[in-house]
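ERR on first pass: missing label on line 2. Operator R.T. fixed the label and resubmitted. Corrected input:
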Amino acid sequence: MNSLSKKDKALLLFVAVMALLAPFLLNPFPTDSAMAQFNAGYPDLMQRFAIFGILAIGFNILFGLTGYLSFGHAAFLGVGSYSAVWMLKLLSMNIIPALILSVIIAGLFSLLIGFISLRRSGIYFSILTLAFAQMSFSLAYSVLTPITNGETGLQLNLNDPRILDATNTTGNLPVTGLFGLEMRNTFTLDLGAWAFQFNVGYYVCAAFLLLAFYLSIRIFRSPFGLMLRAIKTNQTRLNYTGLNSRPYTLAAFVISGMYAGLAGGLMASMDPLAGAERMQWTASGEIVLMTILGGTGTLLGPVLGAGFIKYFENIFSKINETVLHSWFSFMPDGLNDAFVWVLHFFVGKGWHLTLGLLFMLIVTFLPGGLMEGWERIRDKIRGGKGGGKNPPAEATKTPAE
Amino acid sequence: MGILEVQNVNKSFGGLKALQNVNLSIEEGTIHAIIGPNGAGKSTLLNCFVGKLIPDTGTVMFDGHSLLGRKPHEINQIGVSRVFQTPEIFADLTVLENVLIPCFAKRDGAFTLNALTRVSGETDVQEKAEQMLIDVSMQDKKDMIASSLSRGDKRRLEMAMCLSQDPKLLLLDEPTAGMARADTNNTIELLAEIQDRRHITMAVIEHDMHVVFSLAQKISVLAQGTVIVEDLPENIKGHPKVQEAYLGVAAS
Amino acid sequence: MDALLLQILNGLDKGSAYALIALGLTLIFGTLGVVNFAHGALFMIGAFCAVTFSKILNISKITLDPEKTNFLGKPLEIKTPYVIEWFGESTGAALIDWAVPLSILFAIPVMLLVGYVMERGLIKHFYKRPHADQILVTFGLAIVVGELVKTSFGANPIPTPAPELFRGSFDFGVLIGMEANAVIYPFWRLVYFGFSAVVISSIFAFLQFTTFGMVVRAGMADRETVGLLGIDIDKRFTFMFGVAAAVAGLAGVMYTPINSPNYNMGMDFLVLSFVVVVVGGMGSLPGAVLAGFMLGILESFASMNEVKSFFEMLYLPSIDQIVIYLVAIIVLLVRPRGLMGREGVMED
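pass 2 clean. output:
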């Protein structure tokens, strides 16, 4: 395997090990302990980590490399979900055809939108993609109800043809699977006070995450990736080098649209339904946030950002005033109430407020995201040991690992 | 017949005649300077060369192709490379990557989706790029980020990027503008050396006389939108018309 | 003919709202060079100024009725708003009835202040940052403002009626010599249109005829030169941000009787207003106004039954939901700079 450098291989291996051991690593607290609410090692959440990781990796190929800020990426996620559910309804409960169709349809859809939106750059591009996404949302929500089932969302039905599957006689809705392996199957390993859950669906998602990550490394290190970075830093020079930047940006746009389609397809494969709200602009905004939070233009950043946001979304949504009161019970009553009163705005239903604030803080103070923060800390430690004042250029500026 | 032929070019903005009947012929393999006082129409003429402005009448022919109204990438594909007043480089990338990009670019500008090969695995392209850096003596700076280079080095890098495409014509727009004396001399040396070795045709638009007379083999003097003199450098020096254009008749 | 007229009228109120928001967006973009994704939030804050103001007017003194009891058998509470107690029955009730128009007086200082704080506190630090950062930070701000409003006012729309005088509809057709009942039009929508026409023309007059406006226009064209003349352009631009915020806020105040405000309304309008700005031409104030009205009217045409059935005839879904986007895409393909865009504004 000469396709990756040593450093990249190590990085890929790191991600692979993390993904493999996630059910352990994300489950550090015993099941009965008070801290168990901070565990993240259950199938549903781990699947979301992997799926949104794929989404953010794909978005990063567009935004991180070319600097084109798409505000409509959720549209491709939604299209992927719809395609997958249709495949599950018509063809088979096997997720492979569903995923193939979602990637293809999302690719075609992004080709169309990209072809038009990429005629402009900068803000115009952002607004065009936003308009397209809102249009897709309206289409899915009302206009195209026969295809999308409008407000209710597209769901499986007992009467669906599923021409490749054996006739369903159980009277229950069939479940998604991979050549007979059911996605919902979970093996629970009880070790002392801990219960670790190994879910088929999660490992399928994780496998796709690794594939997505591997491809993204390849793209980052390729001449194509170099061209994309050139587009971000100086289009004038690139044009005077004889290159028309549009095919490159369009290719990046379609690739990242296909990533989003895959994520949408996986989402539907884990839980076979698709709704229009998946395409709303808030969802697009969340994708952007994941990427910049982790570190735009870095390889690992988007995955971290996606995990970070999904984890805290999950934890914060669970916390309510009672929980807060129990946390601050050591305080005198008045102080306790004051703390709870302030904090309750940010937890539970207030998660979006936290998200918005986080967004602003990150953009303002840490535009490079978590990866930049990590590097700053690392540089400080190295600087303290008397390291050179000018770190080698490669360490700071080439897409960091 | 020169490699770049400008014939009867007129351009006016509203009532202002920026260019009047400009005729210019640049011989292949020479350094041809276009000089003139401020407002003489140098930038307008340059913009006509690169397709940004379309003259009201007249033609700009390069090597049998009209340059009028073409997009930057098309002009480059015909064989014209451009050096800007402030160096246009890929500031966020390393010096080596800067040169790699033109080395990867196909001469016809064709789009290639080589997304799965490794930049560092393409040894012949790498070698070519490193050779280019050696040619402009920047090989020891290849891992630096381009934005951290000095002005003179940025210019060298930009030259290396242009030269790696083997252009037939190099357009230089005030290549030493805003440079310290040392950097200016440095750049003059570099240009002279390139001319010596590669015989690339260069069109230099410049108002620094030191640069012009150290380099140019032929000079066109532009004043008030027309070419008043086109001659060898030694004949330009002390030419009454040129003195008049620069010092102005109003002085008398 | 009358159906056509009705659709034009129906488009006017939405068009007015688009035009007002787009005008503010363009003003901010032209003066400060900032793309403000929180502009819809300003519209929403304006609407909630009206809600707050009418709540303030309705603050009541509670007295217990000694004779009547409610269904629980407790003494019936009588709420008397303080304004009625202070100003007497008729004046007080009129004040409450006119809460929405009156809240303009309340909203202007509030919006100017909000604009000032927003510009000095946040936007100022983003002038030199890339547009993407500006979009992102204002987008975050829009979420925060929306969520704050949600926690304070709840997620449901809050009905805020127009004054009694303007409720209901009137026969517009008769006014222009058509037969009776041909064109029935709600009063308040006409008020809204008239109001926005006044606001838009005063902005234009302000920019055109005052020295302050002239300096601002000069600054929009060439900031550096105006700065070199020794004029503190930043202060004026900050003020213009406040004005843009106030315009958006007033658009929101007056819109409350048409659509009950909720915390989400800003974003719905924002996306469309951006489309309006792009169609009108980034940086062109007349373009923003023109495109605002045009798209508003177009949207109302697309929702006509005749148009819908025409599309059904062609086996196409009705397009009223997406017509604005379609038009925007076509305009941008045919005229990339928008209808009245200038060369060199946001070209890259």
